[in-house]
Design goal:
The complex is a heterotrimer.
Chain A: H1 3-23, H2 27-51, H3 58-88
Chain B: H1 2-19, H2 26-46, H3 50-74, H4 90-110, H5 124-133, H6 137-158
Helix pairs in contact in B: 1-2, 2-3
Chain C: H1 7-35, H2 44-62, H3 73-91, H4 107-128, H5 132-163, H6 168-173, H7 180-183, H8 185-198, H9 222-247, H10 258-277, H11 285-312
Classes of the chains: A mainly alpha, B mainly alpha, C mainly alpha.
Chain lengths: 101, 179, 313
């Protein structure tokens, strides 16, 4: 158990989440991918705190921020899906390309 | 012993994370994701982060339960009784995420990480509290404002009626009185 | 806090189970008393009611399982099993006579987490059966959870704030002389209400309501039902047991040893919770939501402010 192990775990979680976020059509499943990516961040933040600089609380604060970000991301995501669903009866990313460049 | 627990939990975290995109049922997907979070929370417990580890578990259970409500509300096949594929560009996504993992893993192993400075405090929870209420207070203030902004924005986005039609007034033909 | 002996790991679930059985028996006795009318005194019906939980347990153990079509059986099983497991795990941080089975420095947060795990348990139980009424029961508990959780968390934080620690043992020790229940009455009252809500018991038992023909537990039968109902009594027991270090001074008391006082106080709180079931009318969760957010949250915040000012002094 060392920093490398924690970072490998974080990389695995991040990549799995990235796969989900890229491949899933449903907005809700896409958000699950995003959550998994932030989950990797939690593991990495904890690992960095313990193995690099346990004397300072920065790593802990980072984990705290990441946990909050997850909650906010989910709340916003579901609000957007609700608005989208109400307006157009869709919940697929392919149908929500309004901001496409 | 600790290393063994770490690798078991790590495998479980990654495995249940992958299961999210494999299982058909939305309920199973949500609870696989929850399983992944619980494993990461337990990993944090292994490195003395008692408060944060338990907090991750607490918040993620609540969050996933709320998520389950929305999942089932919006998915066309929530129970997975009729297996179907809801993915696009699977191969591209696999390639990108595989590359990302290779790059991140290589970085994790090859980068010469700095030497450990200092030792964990006797009570990390107290250290976190003092940081958040002292030198890192700005972070918490920004988070507080972000939470408030999110609350307002979500209500504005998700609310059924606009500013001027109230329940009871027949401003709109349908659903005006629904509230 | 001292390390607890190994036998405590075995003794704790046994003690919990005994208390849960006592709660079930008391409920049966109260039920028989209210069914038998008033003035008849304790008759043979009441004595028989004491054995009711055992009879029911044996009946459920031998009952054949009822199955529903396309049920998600693994998820149901997880939900049913998580209920007693979470209740037992929540109890490991309760100090019995100065020591807890697991000396976790964040005992309050741990208890909170295990009690939130019940949300998942109940929702899974409701979802897994693939049946409409249980599903509605599961959703009802989520709605109720949204209502009770915030006041409940504020109350836990208030007690922790009063003691300056998240460790249940230290919170109990901080009440040397004056119980938190005395100078934080609002917090204690709200805690009792949320204890009823988290164990979906009595006036807040709507997730298992009769109007849903049994709600989340409707399709459970045989051993599943036994585990589920036992889990609910265990949850009620743990909620009562945690009230003791949080608000009732832990093991403090004259003459008797600390563990005995903890037990006596737990029994008193548990008895009050069981008694409340037949005493108060059911509150629908959307009503409770209104009460929780307009009355309980401001009240607990004010209580926290008072405690904060006192502690600061």
């Amino acid at each position: 158990m060392n920093l490398q192990a924690f970072l490998l775990l974080a990389a695995a979680l991040f990549s799995i989440g990235l796969f989900g976020a890229l491949s899933q059509q449903s907005v809700v499943m896409l958000m699950m991918g995003l959550e998994l990516m932030v989950n990797g961040l939690l593991a990495a933040g904890g690992g960095f705190w313990f193995y690099v600089s346990p004397g300072a609380a920065d790593g802990q604060v980072l984990v705290l921020v990441a946990v909050t970000v997850m909650a906010l991301e989910m709340a916003m995501g579901f609000a957007v899906v609700t608005a989208l669903f109400r307006a157009r009866d869709v919940d697929l990313t392919d149908d929500a390309g309004d901001l496409r460049g | 012993m600790q290393a063994f627990a770490f690798w078991v939990l790590a495998a479980a975290a990654a495995g249940s994370g992958a299961a999210v995109f494999v299982v058909d049922s939305m309920a199973r997907a949500t609870f696989s994701l929850l399983g992944s979070f619980l494993c990461v929370g337990a990993e944090l417990l292994l490195i003395d982060l008692h408060y944060l580890g338990v907090l991750v578990m607490l918040m993620m259970i609540m969050e996933m339960l709320v998520m389950a409500v929305f999942m089932i509300m919006y998915m066309m096949n929530p129970a997975g009784l009729m297996p179907m594929s809801m993915v696009h560009n699977r191969r591209g996504a696999l390639a990108i995420s595989g590359t990302a993992f290779a790059a991140l893993a290589a970085g994790a192993v090859l980068v010469p990480w700095p030497e450990r400075r200092g030792a964990p405090p006797a009570d990390p929870t107290r250290a976190l509290g003092e940081a958040v209420m002292g030198p890192k207070m700005l972070v918490m203030m920004v988070i507080g404002i972000a939470i408030l902004a999110t609350m307002i924005a979500t209500v504005v986005l998700a609310t059924h009626r606009g500013r001027y039609d109230r329940p009871g007034s027949d401003a709109r033909a349908e659903g005006g009185g629904g509230g | 806090m001292a390390e607890s002996p190994v036998w405590a790991v075995v003794a704790l679930p046994l003690a919990l189970a005994a208390l849960a059985w006592a709660a079930a028996a008391l409920d049966a006795v109260l039920g028989a008393a209210s069914a038998g009318g008033t003035g008849s005194g304790p008759g043979p019906g009441l004595v028989r009611a004491c054995g009711d939980p055992l009879h029911e347990a044996v009946r459920l153990l031998t009952q054949q399982r009822r199955r529903t079509l396309m049920a998600d059986r693994p998820l149901t099983r997880i939900g049913v099993v998580v209920l007693p497991v979470a209740a037992t795990l929540a109890a490991v941080v309760v100090p019995l006579g100065g020591r807890a089975v697991a000396d976790l420095p964040v005992g309050v947060v741990w208890f909170n987490t295990m009690e939130v795990a019940v949300w998942g348990a109940l929702w899974l139980t409701g979802w897994g059966a693939d049946s409409a009424f249980p599903l509605a029961g599961g959703y009802r508990f989520l709605a109720q959870g949204m209502a009770y959780e915030l006041p409940h968390m504020f109350v836990l934080i208030t007690a922790a704030l009063g003691a300056g620690s998240l460790d249940l043992g230290e919170i109990a020790a901080a009440q040397d002389g004056l119980w938190f229940a005395v100078w934080m009455p609002v917090a204690f009252a709200v805690y009792l209400v949320s204890a009823l809500a988290m164990a979906f018991w009595g006036p807040l038992g709507h997730p298992l309501g009769g109007d849903l023909a049994g709600g989340a537990a409707l399709e459970l039968s045989g051993p599943d039902r036994l585990v589920f109902l036992a889990g609910r009594y265990l949850l009620l027991t743990v909620a009562a047991a945690v009230a003791v270090p949080l608000f009732l001074g832990g093991g403090a008391g004259p003459l008797l040893p600390a563990w005995a006082w903890t037990l006596v106080k737990t029994c008193a709180v548990l008895g009050a919770l069981v008694w409340a079931r037949r005493r108060f009318p059911a509150v629908r969760m959307e009503r409770f939501m209104g009460i929780a957010w307009t009355v309980l949250i401001p009240a607990t915040l004010l209580q926290m402010l008072v405690v904060g000012v006192v502690v600061l002094d």
